[in-house]
């Protein structure tokens, strides 16, 4: 059977209020000023790999197409280089909007399951919460275990280089006052910025 | 000059050559760095993707620790740490709700932050606080004949840095020129290296690294000078991947602090230069012997010859 997909969006696909919610978050207010000029897509070094270009993500977000943007690869391919944010003629902090969309995708558990980027973000944050610091090698090993362990094999040459040049250490880095982290973050409502 | 020093996780790990060169260089220049007591990870780009409020609180703990230690200035040599600490500061000042959240969280561990600790980048300290004229006096072994592609990466100058231009930064160019190096024109100086995408989405990330390498080679650079541990890692450690996909990679990537150390005449083996996978073997010419005071009579062999 041939699989067909609809290539235009219907009004029924929108989640009313989504755009407004995003625009209420610190850093995302300027989205309403977007003139769809496409400068962001033009300067983005990764837009050629994206399913929706940054310009399209801006339009879709503003028009309440929540499921489309939160499921997109675009938000995860954003490497936070801020090229779009400094070039935008309307001073929209596009990178910060991408961060907000990533947070929502993680919060709602609708990111692509074994896609390594959100997995890295999750493992990274858990290590910081527990230890207060990152042990890079452990983080990378965890990433391989949770996504594709064969990746570790493909990188044996790099591992050897790093070992030879004394850059690998397995000693777990951590801060002394680990209990402080928990106490400090206990009162922080992670989704306070997410609006109603 | 005294600064609190925030190394960040990378400078203790994969980017240790940055710390190994930064510390002796700063010491040599009379800059006192005091490592922040019990600093924690800044959160980098990953934490912002999970929870922005918590990311700001985590970063703010470091600013509060600097304040508690009586510091006005916090030196953050890692581009990601520099960006996140600055971003937190901006949010703290721009958004009262965020300030309230940070204040409350810090109070729970008996810390406070009044918004005043300045976050500084080494290039800025070198150019603004020390100054190029003063630096020039310290150059013992000029990097004569070395062609360098200055690569800033993204997060050093975008979007919060005030010490340089975010479209065409020149601070590293000017520093390298004072050190005697030849700075090649490098239009990709702020083009993204791919960040962690080299590991997570190699087909995209590694191509971005290749684009930088290819440009540096075409411009005839002997090395790429970097100011970020992740940039240096990407440009250096992926050389076997790059070679397999695009052909041999020949341009080593070093930290600008390593080049500075060489020019100051610090011993090469103390600058972490052996940490690079693509070896950087160039060394500046031996310094000219101090001008001998004319005591011996001029002989025919040493005197000027005219014919």
Can you tell me about this structure?
The complex is a heterodimer of chains A (196) and B (307). Chain A is mainly alpha-helical and 196 residues long. In chain A, 50% of the residues lie in helices and 0% in strands. Chain A has helices at 18-23, 39-43, 54-62, 66-70, 74-77, 83-87, 94-107, 116-131, 136-146, 150-154, 156-164, 178-186. In chain A, helix 8 packs across helix 9. The longest helix of chain A is centred in the middle third of the chain and has 16 residues, at 116-131. With 307 residues, chain B is of the alpha/beta class. Chain B has 13 helices and 8 strands. Chain B has helices spanning 16-28, 44-50, 52-68, 79-94, 96-107, 122-130, 132-138, 171-178, 197-200, 202-218, 229-237, 239-246, 256-264; strands at residues 2-5, 32-35, 73-75, 118-120, 147-150, 182-183, 223-226, 253-255. Chain B has a 4-stranded parallel β-sheet, sandwiched between helices. In chain B, strand 1, helix 1 and strand 2 form a beta-alpha-beta unit. The radius of gyration of chain B is 22 Å and the shape is globular. The N and C termini of chain B lie far apart (55 Å). The mean pLDDT of chain B is 93. Classes of the chains: A mainly alpha (196), B alpha/beta (307). Chains A and B meet through helix 6, helix 7, helix 8, helix 9 and helix 11 of A and helix 2, helix 3, helix 5, helix 9 and helix 10 of B.
Helicity level of chain B: 40-55%
Order of helices and strands of chain A: HHHHHHHHHHHH
Largest sheet of chain A: none
The residue-averaged pLDDT of chain B reads 93
* Shape type of chain B: globular
* Ends distance of chain B: 55 Å
The percent of residues in helical segments of chain A reads 40-55%
Structural class of chain A: mainly alpha
Classify the beta-strand content of chain A into a percent band. under 5%
Based on CA atoms alone, the radius of gyration of chain B comes out at 22 Å
Query: What are the secondary-structure elements of chain B, in order, as H or E?
Result: EHEHHEHHEHHEHEHHEHHEH
Separation of termini of chain A?
Answer: 43 Å
Q: Kindly state the number of beta strands of chain A.
A: 0
Strand content of chain B: 5-15%
The chain pair with the largest interface is: A-B, 64 and 65 residues
